[in-house]
């Protein structure tokens, strides 16, 4: 008995929209086999079939599937021709399907998700389909992130007071594990450099953003944020006191008890700020 290899949707939330798939193969039996395997998965919607390179191009342009199971050997253009004619920016996630293995290296050079060598079993097909689904989700996250960035940029540019470049940012957008956080600048306690990333410390939590200390410092209001070390920026509102350390060095102590090293080159500025606050 053949065991099911896919998982049905579970949980109380709404189901995700089905993944739209196109089948391209010049052999009717091969198309029928792919259809039978795909129809087992309730999360798949088959949008059409094609039997040649020309038909494949027309189908993909018309239906805009998210995944294409694409044969390599076909009349009127092979799978690589189809990819070239559609263009990488418009091409869905591609799983090449073929009875020949000599094109495997080239398939991955053009960023194919997987390469199914006929004949394949159910488990091998399931693995390829899962990789295609993962690629679709990755593209969706990237698209959403890009649109959010565009939206935030638009809102900041059209806000009262002029373009964001003419004033300090009041929010910092941080991407983490596929999610986007909009940090209110006045809620940031302090920031430290960590390799190629900036780590934001906010109320006991931390968030990483790929950026440089110099670019970040230029975006922040110098009346609210001050650099105390080549790798540390603090929110002035969080400062409590300076504490002598050793050999003329000082430690900056924040209101939550965090202790940060103060470089000598930044000592006078911090001292002046604390004096003003007294």
Task: Please describe the structure with a list of short key phrases separated by commas or semicolons.
alpha/beta; 5-stranded antiparallel sheet; OB fold (Dihydrolipoamide Acetyltransferase, E2P); Rossmann fold; disordered N terminus; 33% helix; rod-shaped; 278 residues; 15 strands
Give an overview in words:
The protein folds into 2 domains: 19-142, 3-Layer(aba) Sandwich (Rossmann fold), CATH 3.40.50.2300; 168-277, OB fold (Dihydrolipoamide Acetyltransferase, E2P) (Beta Barrel). The chain is 33% helix and 29% strand. The chain is rod-shaped and about 80 Å long. With 278 residues, the chain is α/β, with parallel strands linked by helices. Helix 2 (53-63) packs parallel to helix 3 (79-86). A 5-stranded parallel beta sheet has the order 2-1-3-4-5, sandwiched between helices. A 5-stranded antiparallel beta sheet has the order 10-9-8-12-11.
Question: Would you spell out the secondary-structure blueprint of this structure?
Answer:
Blueprint: E1 19-24, H1 28-38, E2 44-50, H2 53-63, E3 67-71, H3 79-86, E4 93-98, H4 104-109, E5 114-117, H5 122-158, E6 171-176, E7 179-184, E8 190-194, E9 197-202, E10 205-210, H6 213-219, E11 225-229, E12 232-235, E13 239-244, E14 250-254, E15 259-262, H7 267-277
Parallel strand pairs: 1-2, 1-3, 3-4, 4-5
Antiparallel strand pairs: 6-7, 8-9, 8-12, 9-10, 11-12, 13-14, 14-15
Helix pairs in contact: 2-3
């Amino acid at each position: 008995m053949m065991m099911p290899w896919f998982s049905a949707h579970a949980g109380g939330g709404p189901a995700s929209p089905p993944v739209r798939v196109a089948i391209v193969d010049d052999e009717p039996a091969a198309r029928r086999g792919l259809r039978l395997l795909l129809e087992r998965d309730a999360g798949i919607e088959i949008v059409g079939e094609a039997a040649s390179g020309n038909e494949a191009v027309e189908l993909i342009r018309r239906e805009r599937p998210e995944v294409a199971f694409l044969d390599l050997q076909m009349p009127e253009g092979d799978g690589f021709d189809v990819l070239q004619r559609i263009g990488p920016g418009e091409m869905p996630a591609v799983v090449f399907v073929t009875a020949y293995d000599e094109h495997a290296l080239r398939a991955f050079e053009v960023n194919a998700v997987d390469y199914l060598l006929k004949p394949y079993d159910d488990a091998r097909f399931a693995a390829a389909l899962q990789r295609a689904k993962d690629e679709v989700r990755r593209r969706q996250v990237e698209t959403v992130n890009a649109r959010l960035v565009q939206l935030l940029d638009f809102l900041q540019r059209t806000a009262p007071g002029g373009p964001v470049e003419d004033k300090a940012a009041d929010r910092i957008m941080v991407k983490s594990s596929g999610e986007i956080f909009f940090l209110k600048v006045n809620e940031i306690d302090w920031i430290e450099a960590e390799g190629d990333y900036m780590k934001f410390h906010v109320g006991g939590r931390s968030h990483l953003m790929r950026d440089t200390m110099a670019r970040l410092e230029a975006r922040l209001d110098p009346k609210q944020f001050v650099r105390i070390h080549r790798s540390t920026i603090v929110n002035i509102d969080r400062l409590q006191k300076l504490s002598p350390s050793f050999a003329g060095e000082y430690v900056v102590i924040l209101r939550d008890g965090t202790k940060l090293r103060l470089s000598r080159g930044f000592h006078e500025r911090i001292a002046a700020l604390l004096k003003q606050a007294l």
